[in-house]
Write a structure and sequence with these properties.
By secondary structure, this protein is α/β, with parallel strands linked by helices. The chain contains 16 helices and seven strands. It is 54% helix and 7% strand. It has a five-stranded mixed beta sheet with strand order 3-2-1-4-5. Strands 6-7 form a two-stranded antiparallel sheet.
């Protein structure tokens, strides 16, 4: 018979719950296991059972979206609920069952091993789901953009090769005119933005010369209609997000905010978004390079505005899975692939990637230098780590980020390199002579 695993008890009166689509498995002591159905009435029966057992704290895995209803129901009834990453509760292979899982979760939680996941409260949770839903609809809409490109390519209309995006204002105007029966290239060009007419006019006229086909035009029209439906859905979500933001920022004080940064793609149609985000955070986050108001909107549902649960910036970076990983054993040191970044970490990586070509950002200069020695992936993750630290410091200190600029960064780098050269020269009894004629 296998020996039972035991731990030192840190938390008393705690239970472990394994959640499924049809049943939940509850263990109040690591031994006894009771099952309940996933109906709301069954969840209330589970809560009564936990109270009768004297349970004050509960741990459960974040399984899909099944945990959400039970999590908030137990919280409303006054229990402390610890939501954990399923990767942190894995057992040895070949031993996994729902019964064993809930017993194992209870033992780990009682021993104080499990870490709490961050769960936004109230309206912030609703905001998180709306922003994520918005991103999903944008992704779904891009499917129909690809299909529109395919339809144009079938007719050898080369607009995708000439325009940066066919679903921009100029591209949609031309597609609608084509579907209405217009074939005059000069007229179609006149529907474009003035800059396109000036710099790409000849190419657009050549691109519009194709073999028009009724079947492919029908397919193009259907995909355009489906894309427009998704755009209408995005506008409706933007209205709901604006309503939530107004409720969340109603009692917040006005914050002095600088000029809003432009949002290049999928900008939310929310009036006064820049001022609202500054009020919610209590500071203008767009002072951080690579972060605009849309980024701040995405981050607020993922991180919240209260950083007190993270003792230091390193804790925050580690939570976002942006910290470097190590694997050392004696003299052996290996590079190890860390856990994938959470959603907040992914957002910081996207921001860092946008700074790779920036000539005015010290973080961009740092990433370009690191990319020369490592590769783009490592450089972007290192830049994302710096952005996450700047984000944490801005929220905890309540002061806007101050951009040092590329020149200041290069000056500091030169000082460090000179100090290193001087140490080497002293070590080998050499003398450094500065070249006065150097540019």
């Amino acid at each position: 018979m296998a020996k039972e695993t035991t731990f030192e008890t840190v938390h008393e009166n705690v239970a472990g719950i394994d959640i499924g689509a049809e049943q939940i498995f509850v263990s109040p002591d690591g031994q006894e296991v009771v099952t309940f159905e996933t109906f709301t009435s069954s969840y209330y029966a589970c809560a009564i059972y936990l109270r009768e057992k004297g349970i004050k704290k509960v741990a459960m895995e974040a399984t899909g979206v099944y945990w959400i209803a039970l999590y908030f129901l137990l919280e409303e009834l006054g229990m402390l609920v610890c939501l954990v990453n399923p990767k942190e509760t894995k057992q040895a292979k070949g031993r996994k069952t729902d019964v064993r899982d809930c017993q194992w979760i209870q033992k780990l939680f009682a021993a104080g091993i499990l870490r709490h996941s961050f769960i936004p409260q109230g309206k912030f949770m609703e905001l998180r789901h709306l922003v994520r839903e918005r991103l999903d609809i944008i992704s779904m809409g891009s499917t129909y953009v690809n299909k529109m490109q395919k339809c144009l390519e079938l007719m050898n209309i080369k607009l995708p090769e000439v325009l940066s995006q066919i679903h921009g204002t100029s591209g949609i105007n031309m597609i609608k005119a084509i579907l209405s029966g217009s074939r005059d290239a000069a007229y179609l060009l006149s529907l474009c933005d003035d800059r396109i007419q000036k710099y790409k006019g000849e190419k657009v006229i050549k691109a519009l010369e194709g073999r028009y086909n009724d079947t492919y035009l029908f397919m193009l029209e259907q995909n355009l209609k489906l894309w427009e439906i998704h755009q209408q859905q995005i506008k409706m979500i933007d209205k709901e997000i604006a309503h939530l933001l107004d409720e969340l920022s109603e009692d917040k004080e006005e914050v002095a905010a600088g000029k809003a940064k432009p949002i290049r793609h999928h900008a939310p149609k929310i009036k006064g978004l820049h001022a609202t985000m500054a009020r919610l955070y209590g500071v203008d986050l767009t002072s951080i390079p690579g972060i605009n108001d849309y980024t701040a909107l995405r981050l607020i549902g993922e991180t919240g505005t209260d950083m007190s649960r993270f003792a230091t910036a390193k804790n925050f970076v580690n939570w976002a899975s942006l910290s470097p990983k190590s694997h050392r054993s004696g003299k052996m040191k290996k590079n190890v692939r860390g856990m994938p970044c959470n959603v907040a970490g992914q957002i910081f990586k996207q921001c860092a990637q946008s700074l790779l070509k920036s000539k005015d950002s010290a973080i961009g200069s740092f990433m370009r230098k690191l990319r020369g020695r490592k590769d783009s992936g490592i450089a972007i993750k290192a830049g994302a780590r710096k952005l996450a630290i700047a984000y944490y410091n801005t929220l905890t200190k309540g002061t806007a980020y101050v951009e040092e600029g590329t020149r200041r960064y290069e000056e500091q780098l030169k000082k460090r390199e000179m100090a290193s050269l001087k140490r080497l020269a002293k070590k080998h009894n050499l003398q450094l002579i500065e070249n006065q004629n150097a540019a």
